[in-house]
Amino acid sequence: ETGVTQSPTHLIKTRGQQVTLRCSSQSGHNTVSWYQQALGQGPQFIFQYYREEENGRGNFPPRFSGLQFPNYSSELNVNALELDDSALYLCASSLDAYGYTFGSGTRLTVV
Amino acid sequence: QQQVKQSPQSLIVQKGGISIINCAYENTAFDYFPWYQQFPGKGPALLIAIRPDVSEKKEGRFTISFNKSAKQFSLHIMDSQPGDSATYFCAASRVSGTYKYIFGTGTRLKVLA
Q1: DSSP 8-state class, residue B55
Q2: Distance CA A106, CA A104 (A)
Q3: Contact present, A36 and A89 (Cβ < 8 Å)
């Protein structure tokens, strides 16, 4: 049984560009959530997908969007990147509310 | 009302000592309280969790104490080891609907050998 895998592990982008981050959920997990973790802070909820539908969204602007695929893998897209978007982006999968399994994250640096 | 306040920000403990991290929440609708451990360069890993219908849960050296009336919960690490050195996050969530976790700001624990 594999855990949650994210790609790429590191990424450097220029302000104004667009980025796509990818996540493969743990086998059998039908729910994927994305979190943003700024340096020295706790993760902040971006949104959650359940069976390919957005199931809830945190306080992030519409330029943060996502997708979930039939195999439950997921993408996070961020348009018009800003310097403040520099953070560790975490994907987490779960079957229910009792404990996410997090990936190791993608470190995004916007310059 | 969605905040989870965590303290201390950092903690240094001698090997074999007890590490205690505290969290407080405001939203009484929260009904699931996990603790996560995060090592540098890794994602958070679930350590232990509690529901509000019990006041204490113990798993090995890790214990959660929960005070529903005070809206506070804490993590106790007994016999702390250098390998426990990591950042610890408390979180709060509802188990129904969109179970988004509200995380605390983290506690950086260093256990001295």
Answers
A1: S
A2: 7
A3: yes
A37: β partners: A88
**pLDDT (tens digit per residue) in B22-45:** 999 999 999 999 999 999 989 999
Helix%, strand%, coil% for chain B, nearest 5: 5, 55, 45
Candidate from B34, B93, B104 with C-beta closest to A42: B104
In 3-state terms, what secondary structure has residue B83?
helix
| Amino acid type, A100 | Y
With an 8 Å Cβ cutoff, is B101 touching chain A?
yes
CA–CA separation, A98 vs B9, rounded Å? 26
- What is the distance in angstroms between the Cα of A42 and the nearest Cα belonging to chain B? 5
Average pLDDT score over chain A? 94
* Sign of the CA dihedral with A106 first, then A108, B3, and B5 last: positive
Residue A16 above 60 pLDDT?
A: yes
> What's A92's DSSP letter?
E
Question: Is pLDDT of B1 > 90?
Answer: no
**Band of residue A1 on the pLDDT scale cut at 50, 70, 90:** low
